[in-house]
Amino acid sequence: MYNIKKIPEHIGVIPDGNRRWAIDRGMEKGDGYAYGVRPGIVLCDLMASYGVKEVTFYGFTKDNNKRPKLQRDSFTQACVDSVNAVANKDANILVVGNENSPLFPNELLPYANKRVNFGSGKININFLVNYDWKLDLEVGIKNNSLKNTMSKDIAKIDLIIRWGGRRRLSGFLPVQSVYADFFVLDNYWPDFKEEDFFAAMEWYQTCDVTLGG
Hints:
The chain is built from 5 helices and 7 strands, in the order E-H-H-E-H-E-E-E-H-E-E-H. The protein is an alpha/beta fold.
């Protein structure tokens, strides 16, 4: 039985390890992304049931677009499928990224940098798609305030969970992540299981959140 009393309001998710997962199974690198769609749906449902108010998924970045076209097509389609899968739930959907780039998927333009509400709006679900942390900050600087970044409609993050064993933020929302606690799982994202979420929640119970005070 899990003893979870302290629930983070906003969780960031870095779903890493898709390519390594595919290689381990004799697949092409890009094949792993499609297997990461369902875990995101399950995780969203779990978070909503435990009262998490907001979740942000790291989809793909400007730098990820340096990868071969087949991989780009695969992770772009996985992002589109993930957004479509949660769009009909009781959720408020926001996709943050450079919508003016030809690499931003047309299917997600209705959600680009504006929140779209569905049903009772039980949870805010954000996706970073064709995201560029430098551009995010540059928009804030141009507007003379880091409160007016490109990602201004995303709240501060309490907890970041990263799959795949890497211990780095990889440019994930630098403003919102400044005081976030960081939990790493060694298993790859397509191997997600509900116990991953509970492991992160139990660890979070031990965190002393002072915000520098």
